[in-house]
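Example protein was shown:

_____
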Amino acid sequence: MPSLYWGPLAINALLFSLLGTVIAAYFGVRVIVARRQRTPTDGLMPPLWIFAMAALCAVLVTLSHVLDRDVAAWILPWAAPSGSAAMAASILFAERLFGEGILSRRGRKALVLALTLFVAGEVAIAAARTIHLSQGAVYFRDAWLRTAFVTGFVVAPAFCLINLRRALGPEGWRRIGPLLLNPFRPLTDYPGASAARGIFYFSLMPVALALVLLARSTGILGWSVAETILSWLVLLVFSGFVWTFLSYLPERSGTTTKIAAMVLVAFLMIVSALSWLVAPAILDGFRDRGAPYAGQAYRFAPAPDGGYDITTIEAQRVVPLLHRPGPETEPVALPFDLPFLGQNHRSLYVRDTGLVGLGAFPRLEDIQFRYGPEAAIFVLAARLAPPQAPSADSGVFVDALPGRVVISWARMTIEGAPDQRYDAQLTLYPDGTLDIAFFEIPLHPRANLYRPDDVAMLVGLTPGSRHGTVLEGALAGRHLPPGTGAVDDRRPAFYKAMNAAFGPMAAFLLLAVPGLLVLFSLLVQLSVQRPLAALAMGVERFRKGHLGTPIPVYAQDEIGALARAFNEVAAERERLLQSLEAEVERRSAEAVELSARNARLEERADLGRELHDAVSQSLFAASLIADSLPRLQQNDPAKAAEAGRQVAALNRAALAETRNLLMHLRSQEMLSQPFGTLLRGVAEEMARSYGLQVTVSVDSDAQLPGEVQYAFFRVAHAALTNVARHAGTDRAEASFDAVDGQAMLTVTDAGAGFDPDAVPPGHFGLAIMRERLDKLGGMLEVETAPGRGCRITAIWFSDDNGDGDSGDAG
């Protein structure tokens, strides 16, 4: 037999293997990247496990189709455990679709335990099949064991329905029906509902697979059409799940990944369809020129060494066809001891399949592995059935004649191919001679594309794999050593014909799928990702206000058109921005000019306040005395002379105060020393100029911020000047205290006092003091009444402790 057998079944299994491997590798890479970045992988592990196990199952099935039958028999049992693991993972994934499980903690533990037992049971079954295989017997899973798979196919959609109901809110069950009947209705208002609905649809695919299998078994669909649909459905299940997962679930992926997946699936679907379309043509053209033909017979004659000599003789029909055997499982007694490969047999088992077992019931399944564990004779070895119109001379007959036993398979046909008719006989002689004769065989036997072992392709005998070996090849002219069997297996010719067509297709797939992914990645990188990355970078620059760098246009396509349009918008925005900047610059210049003008006005106001505090009062007093000079000159020249001297003194004082103002006005020396020192200096000045004795008390001295220090200095100077001129007393008190961004100045006298609500017009001292402190965010408190003296308190808090200002003097 050839080392590899590539047919349509193997090709489609390879398609599933490649697709599952690519998807599992994709999720595996995502898991590795997520772990390196220390991000959660909860959303990636379920699909990784599902597709890894599904890919492993598909690989094992592919190997069971491709490899030698004796090797494939060891592999096939282990496909079911991997498939069951994939189904268990899909159930757990559906139960916890959105992170929050449907079941309670105890219920989830029970589900995990049940699925673990299910997978462990499949592993145990595979191990048991492997043990039986080591003894030469081939066993397949019983039909009832498929119940667990059927249950799993029901549980997963049920979990998806429950998740869909939860995603739709309190009235989810009422909304489910219309949403399922309209799969294209968007569910943007219900997060997660689209994912649950999509996965529900694809979880129903196994039901569609079952319906297709039923249609094939009933003849509604032919094998070729049915197998094509089945292959496409499996591909759709894989691709649909991936698309749903990448599109809707929290772990999203880029459009490039989705496009690549869909291109790969489309490519594999085309290859799948081609494999099923090409296969019938190969079957019609297959001719096995070495196969047995009508009128041919083989004689196995005992040799002196205890073996057999095989020759060809003319086929001679034995006509009786009188006795039909009982049930196949019951042995047929022989009228003599039949020596066969070193053993004597008194009974045998006759099968409708053209098999005769010696010592054990022969099964078609067993002969696929080393031609079976027990001794058997292969006459036709195919799934035979009586003709659709049975007659007395059709069917299986066992006739004991004098000196021989004749077993006839008369006018039998292949199941599902009534035009393929076979007529053969096996004659047994007491000395161990065997004759296998063919009276009717199709001129061109048509091999079964889907079940090649169902067609009559084996002729010969075997001692059983437990008792001896079997030689393969042509039978005529061969000598068999003792205990050795010989089989003319015509399957290799069919496999070679299939291999010649599908072997290159398999090689093409193995090279094309990675190549397609690489080429598609490069194409997408050059034509999609690079332009989109440039466009995204341009948008980011636009967002940050960098409009001068245009987006490169790589191609004259939709992305290029979008880049050009964006460049035009950016250019227009830049022109608008430049015009706005020019207008802002013009307006800023106007604002600067206005600010300078306001600053000059403010300086004038400040100078006015300073002049009021320091000079205006002296000049006002001098003007009053000067107004009375003419009257005094007429009435009392001596008083007039005294008044003149007072005017001169007041003018000299105003001049001194003006000089003093110019010298102290915001001088750096004033702003660079503690305020207590300044306050003592003001007290000394009041004593020299007005004879006012000021008691200074400084509890905690500090150097205040420039503006604050200057304001407090002017308040202290103005308040003490008012005391000296208006209070009618020669004594006053001034206290200062400053801690942690706070300052308080108090000027107190026991003079005449005044009514703060009845300040005469033209007296702006208090208003100027209050204005100074308001500008700094401070406050001025005045406590006075006629005859009760006066207390003026200036308070300031910095921005860190209150609402005041801490700016420096400008």
